[in-house]
Amino acid sequence: MFALKTIVLKWLFLTISPCDAAEPWQLGSQDAATPIMQGIIDLHHDIFFFLILILVFVLWILVRALWHFHYKENAIPQRIVHGTTIEILRTIFPSLISMFIAIPSFALLYSMDEVVVDPAITIKAIGHQWYRTYEYSDYNSSDEQSLTFDSYMIPEEDLELGQSRLLEVDNRVVVPAKTHLRIIVTSADVPHSWAVPSSGVKCDAVPGRLNQISILVQREGVYYGQCSEICGTNHAFTPIVVEAVPRKDYGSRVSNQLIPQTGEA
Amino acid sequence: MEDEIELKTAPADFRFPTTNQTRHCFTRYIEFHRCTTAKGEDSSDCERFAKYYRALCPGEWVDKWNEQRETGTFPGPL
Questions:
Q1: A219 and A156 within one domain
Q2: Using an 8 Å Cβ cutoff, are A215 and A183 in contact?
Q3: A44-84: per-residue pLDDT in tens?
Q4: I need a surface site. Which of A6, A82, A102, B56 has the fewest CB within 10 A?
């Protein structure tokens, strides 16, 4: 009975737990958490279809040519110079394939740039060597930030069972799910890059520049990413963890962090 | 403090449609200070601009600009 329950639970875990962090030997993308990432995955599937088509065709022609026109089988080479029909076909077909690839690609590209709705929240992600600072400044009434915290990687010796090596941080970025967010990415020293693959986000953090990205996280969960621009010796040890909570819980999560801040201020 | 926090922030400004929002932050900061110069330090009309620049600009930038304003070296059309 217990064995049966274990098997059922294991099966459920393996089938319904989404991939929001890098897995060992992973081949495909992480599961999408935003419409942008879903669009990227769908575009990948569209292109992959044509890719396989072209691959099979080219390999077939190549193998056929090598097999049938081996010098032992066919000693006299042909001297074909023209072939109008085939030349027209081999120009038209690739152009058509390029067009079929370009249409979904441009559709995604331009829709990613469109800012349709005003964001509900602005979060600033500031890269440092070698940690991140997050500022939530929508709520303060003076120039003092209401919520600023640093996010350091948890070193391997401090990890608990079940946590991911090189991916966990002490303070996660808490965001409300199903809400339009504006993330402003910048750096305080050298270039970094703020990347969260399951949200389809990778944005360079350049000192002196504020880069804006709009995301809408569609499901609750914890999403992992890593710094994606070489920034010094601990570049591999500055991960990013975004935790999307239900919108109604977001208020209390932020207040809980606000109260210690304003208590000190 | 436990009430629903109203989720509101600086709106998307069509003057700055691209990814680079550096000028957006700078412009909001300048707008706030021009507003206070025109309408007085404690005018509530200017509070809107204050919220916008605080939402967009990193704290360090705001602190640096405040210092520059105090020493008279702020490089902008206040």
A1: yes
A2: yes
A3: 999 999 999 999 999 999 999 898 888 888 888 888 888 99
A4: A82
In chain B, which residue's Cα lies nearest the Cα of A248? B4
**Boundary-marking domain end, from A113, A130, A159:** A113
Choose the closest CB to A126 out of B8, B9, B58.
B58
Tell me if B54 sits within 8 A of B62, measured CB to CB. Answer: yes
**Per-residue pLDDT at A145:** 61
Cα–Cα distance measured from residue A240 to residue A222, given in angstroms and rounded to the nearest whole number: 10
In tens, the pLDDT along A80-93 reads 888 999 999 999 99
Distance CA A134, CA A253 (A): 15
End-to-end CA distance of chain A: 57
User: CA dist A78 to A71, A82, A87, A92, A120, Å?
Assistant: 12, 12, 17, 25, 69
Span A168-215, pLDDT tens digits: 999 999 999 999 999 999 999 999 999 999 999 999 999 999 999 999
Overall number of domains in chain A: 2
Q: Which residues of chain B from 35 to 54 reach within 8 Å of chain A, CB to CB?
A: 51, 54
CA distance A18 to A252: 26
Among residues A48, A82, A113, the one where a domain terminates is A113
Q: How far apart are CA A171 and CA A17, in angstroms?
A: 23
Q: What is the ipTM of this complex?
A: 0.87
Alpha-carbon distance of A226 to A1, in angstroms, equals 42
Task: Please tell me if residue B75 touches chain A, with a CB cutoff of 8 Å.
Answer: no
Q: A249: domain CATH number?
A: 2.60.40.420
Q: How far apart are CA A165 and CA A228, in angstroms?
A: 17
What is the domain range of residue A93?
1-15+30-113
Place of tokens 């590209």: A109
